[in-house]
Amino acid sequence: MIYIYALIAIVMFALCGWLLSFATRHYSHVDSMWSLFIAITAYTSVLFTDDLSSRALLVLIAATLWALRLSLFLAWRNWGTEDHRYQTIRQNNEPHFWFKSLYIIFAFQALLAWVISYPLYAAVTSARVLNWLDMAGGLLFLLGIYWEVVADWQLMRFRARADHQSSVLQSGLWRYSRHPNYFGECLIWWGFGMLGAASGNHWAWLSPVIMTFLLLKVSGVSLMEQTIHSRRPGYAAYVHSTNAFIPGLPKPERANDV
């Protein structure tokens, strides 16, 4: 029943986001709400759990750190502009998109976030003592958030320079992977999955599997690389020399063949 309460709280928050779109006249703020949707599951579970375990505290700290960091970063990045993805969705769903956006954007993301947040619910409501899987999950989470923060910071600095508008970032973590920020996010979710599974609930493994698929095939790597070639002419050579997702050494001999 606690998990259902979390869904109700997430849907109410999504409704607030939909109402906000009438004032902002765009929909990019749902990106900033995504991580908060998931954190809501952790906090709702805390409200309805009598005795909080060490695992619950560990998950609360991790979820808060991850959710606030990602939400604030995306709010800053999207401030005053609408992501081209939402512009496309709007064009494909007129007329009355103001109403359709309620279920196409906000309700859909709320429901998806609720499903994916299952490991947080499992971890917070468990009374099991900590075990080796908690330690592994915690370490993987820390590595993931370090990787994601550093990658986002390096990309932010690169894009701030006017002479980099059509260039490709190929230094720092971006030298070893074309999407280190998504790789870091993936590690975070496998960390959450381990923390959930450490509670004895093996359904928690489903969330990192879904997130890995989404990052690779739906909203991450695949979506980004559909349009980036036209905006950054050097990207084809970068693709040829650098792994898409899992970090690895660059392949200069292959790059020279282009």
What does this protein look like?
- It is a single chain.
- The chain has 258 residues and is mainly α.
- Helices cover 71% and strands 0% of the residues.
- It contains 12 helices and no strands.
- It is globular, with a radius of gyration of 19 Å.
List keywords for this structure.
mainly alpha, 258 residues, globular
- How far is the first residue's CA from the last residue's CA? 57 Å
Strand content: under 5%
Helix/strand class? mainly alpha
Radius of gyration: 19 Å
Helix-strand sequence:
HHHHHHHHHHHH
Helix count? 12
> Largest sheet, if any?
none
Give the topology.
Blueprint: H1 2-24, H2 29-47, H3 54-78, H4 84-92, H5 97-116, H6 118-124, H7 132-159, H8 180-197, H9 206-218, H10 221-231, H11 235-241, H12 252-255
What does this entry show, briefly?
This protein is mainly alpha-helical and 258 residues long. Helix content is 71%, strand content 0%.
